[in-house]
Write a structure and sequence with these properties.
- The complex is a heterodimer.
- Chain A has one domain (about 1-80).
- Chain A has no helices and 6 strands.
- Chain A is mainly β.
- Chain A has a 6-stranded antiparallel barrel.
- By secondary structure, chain B is of the alpha/beta class.
- Helix content of chain B is about 45%, strand content about 15%.
- In chain B, the strands form 4 sheets. Chain B has a 7-stranded mixed beta sheet.
- Chain B is globular, with a radius of gyration of 34 Å.
- The chains are: A mainly beta, B alpha/beta.
- At the A-B interface, strand 3 and strand 4 of A face helix 6 and helix 7 of B.
Amino acid sequence: MSFWPDGCPLEVLATDGRPQQFHWNLRLHRILRVGDHWRVHTDWWAGEVWRDYWQVTTHTGLLCVIYHDLVADLWRLERIYG
Amino acid sequence: MDEHYVELHCHSCFSLLDGASTPEALLDRAAELGMPALALTDHNGLYAAIRFSLAARQRGIAPIVGAELTLQKGPGCPEPSHLVLLAENRAGYRNLCWLISRGQLAGSKGHPRLSLAQFQGHTAGLIALTGCRQGCVTGRLLAGEPKQALAALATLRELFGPHNLYVELQQHLHPGDAALAAELARLARKAHLPTIATNNAHYARQSDSPLHDVLVAIRHNLPLAECRPHLRPNSEYYLKPPAEMAALFAAHPDALAHTLEVASRCQVDLYFRDEATAPPDLATVTGDPAPMRQAAPSPPEGEGDAPRPSEEERAFATLSALCLAQLPARYPHDTGAAERQLHHELQVIRQTGLAGYFLLVWDIVRYAKAQGIQVRGRGSAANSIVAYLLGITAVDPLAHNLLFERFLSAEARIMPDIDLDFCSRRREEVIQYVYRKYGESHVGMVCNYITYCARSAIRDVGKALGLPPAVIDQLAKGQSKWRSHDWDPAALGFTPQDWERFWGLCEAIQGFPRHLGIHVGGLCITRSPLDQVVPLERATMPGRVVIQWDKDNTEDAGLIKLDLLSLRTLSAVDECLRLIRETRSETVDLDALPLDDPAVYRQLQQADTIGAFQVESRAQQQALVKMKPRNLADIVVEVALIRPGPLQGNMVHPYLRRRAGLEPVRYPHPLLEPILAETLGIIVFQEQVIRVAMAMGGFSAGEADLLRRAMSRHRSEEEMAAFRERFVRGAMARGVPPEVADDVFTKLSGFASYGFCKSHAVAFAKTAYDTLYLRAHYPAEFYCAILNNEPMGFYAPRVVIGDARRHGVRVRPVDVNRSRENCTVEEGAIRLGLLYVEGLGQRGAERVVAARPAQGYSDLPDFCRRTRLPRRLVENLILAGAMAAWRREQRALLWELGRLHYQEEELPLPLPPDEVALQPLTRAEELLAEYSVTGVSAEGHLMELFRERLEGMGVCTCRGLQQARQGQSARVAGLVAVRQAPPTAKGFAFITLEDETGLANLVLTPDKVEQYRPLLDRPVLLAQGTVEREGSTVHLKASTISALA
């Protein structure tokens, strides 16, 4: 499993906030399935954290968690399983 | 798919320190979202149910009444859990009240105890939703126990039936929420139960979520940074638009549709007038002692009760008979007008079905009088001849031109408002009587929501945000108004953004309830058992139960609310009358006093009013000199007008000028002349607001009262705008130009929030008259009674004593052989009581009295041995001059005390007297000693000590200042009697000094206040300045101040 505590910047194509595919490691990964989706909004009093998390499976066989930083409007990769 | 949705699980700020929006804010948002209905489900309570229902109807939204109950852990549910209940109909509402009450009364404050087993037999008319993650069913699923979840569901189904139970699905975008919802839906299918979608809203908009976090932090008494485990992980708990909910529950369309289904089923009318008029126990009317009242049988389940005509008719017949019987006594001369008014009032009472209410009040007053407890009725009720004939009020409504319609109106929804003032010492007896007579299940105290004000908001929000305590202190203390522009955010450690956010939170939280208190003396009495009308809670006082509604909500619900208030003045009056009986064998009947005693008006015109009710304050005295009241009507205006509101609203000066003939009496429009003539064209009384609304705006009596209530309760701008429009339209129909109408409405609205009800003013004026009468004719007894009921009134005891002496009443110091615990009247003088000696307290004082032999204590050793008081208290008594009976100098007594052995020590060994010649205390030392130990000086005034020196400095006496000329330079000195720096005075301060000759007033301009601020707390001041006279009012505009002590 790989984990990026600060998130690894990601280029994501999303419709209505829902991710469809992303580029990473010089490859295109299409999202086949969304396992779970949750939202975190905390710490507004000290450096706001507001993120949409997606646990997804890609056509390239990745099971990973990516998130959409809603404050900065950036996507990041947080972890890859297995 | 139909995208309509109704939120059925929703919290307001009355889920204390949890919900972050007011009911109105929730409804406004719901209206924006197009929701046809909204439920309010606060924790374990219906605090906001009435307010919510009324506000909902105003916005065209159907209100759904419910609550989220906390259940104890029990079989099948190892954790405490939540359950949401919605009332479908009146029967369901009753059950809801009953259940909430059981839980609240069994638990402790804030921690109800209720178990599912208690629901048996109390679920009819209720719809249950299985709750959030803390609901039992969901909880068991989350714990990985689906079988238990199913069992829990079965239990609920047995209690509520398959048509009144819904499995609640929520989707807050927590990890696993979608899966959980799917599992719950599967469970529901298995149990053949429908699902329902809710969002468990805790605030109206997403942007409110920070406030919600702050409330949680406050609740846990932690800064936010340490509160993470208790905070919700995201901001999804807002009222979501139907479209959003549709997207979230795309997999569960039924769950959404069911919200509309449930909404359409729930219809409860929260108006209890029919149910809540308690008929009195008619046995008491005939004079029999009141038996314990049987609880009324529970009304049959169903919508509302049929009225009980025979009971109401009987009450009415009794009421009429009582009133008619009193007519000749109260109106010995011309009963014609009185009879007509009575007939009219009885008609209205009959139409509104309130005879029982009047009899209830009459009975309480009758009981009080029979027990010799002083009681005065006031409030809009004082407007009625019925109240006057029944002896509830002491004021003749005809003689004082009072308006019955302010009190009651055939237009139903206005409940009468009667306040009863009792002697504070004995009010409790009356409350006990009411509980005994009607039973604890029918009487409850009205609650009071303690809400956030500026200071408490700053403290709690500041703490939650983790601000340094020093900063919080500075912000909290340094303000009289909201945002002082003198603050430098950066200097306090704030970024501009943080600063804005901090104040935004403080403003948002202002007005939110923090906890529940009791409204002192407000009682709610119902015909049905109280816990089926409104939920009950424990009060901190044992045996007392509080209803979850406050004054306003109780009134809006159509319930009977009586205010049984306590007035120290009445205790003082009571005592004064008793002393008069004892010392002079005279009985004064205050009810029969003629209202034109010249001594009373002389005192008023000379502002000689220290100790008198309502008219003794500095502001009052200054106005009195200008107003020079000549009759009771003048006192009425004085009492109504000289209060902060009208003073601020700049109504007082025009009135006083017109009265002095300095300004012509003008009316905004001829229509208003008959109404405002008695107050020289100025709106003074709330009753005038009603009359103006009716005469100019064409309002009916009922509408006018709604306007008055809206004004006095700070209603919304939209509401006021609607009233204004109606008023102007009505006025124009009467030929009034629109600008005039608009201006008059502005006057009305500017006034009504602090205007005084004339009947209150009349009742108070009568009490003021009574106290002035007693003060003039029985001064010793009067001042003695005032001293025995301190703290009360505007002035400290020593000022009262000084005043007594200036009126020729001798005041004798505390004496161990003559004084009792309280002050007494001794040969026409006042003997100070032992309680005035510091540290002695009730026990010590009683001991001195109890141990005193018939011939008195013979000397100090005798005193000490008999009373065994601690040395330090004996010292205080010596210094207070209490042992002057033995004519020993105080120093010698102290010396003797030092050498005396007594109390638990071995045998008292009398030591041979030591022939040390001791200097006697000087007068100064005596006075200072007495003053330091008792806080008063009985026979001398402290300023006497300085008089010689002061005369040498050219300082005049307080009385001397009264003779000074305008513009003259003068110096005056004295003890500080009053210090005032009212927020309305723009930085000015007012100080009253007292010396042995009287009082003098100082005025300090803001710069002087700043300059001499450290000195202003000192007890004795010397001031130099310029004399300013206004008629007979004199004050010294201070230019320099120094402290003499």
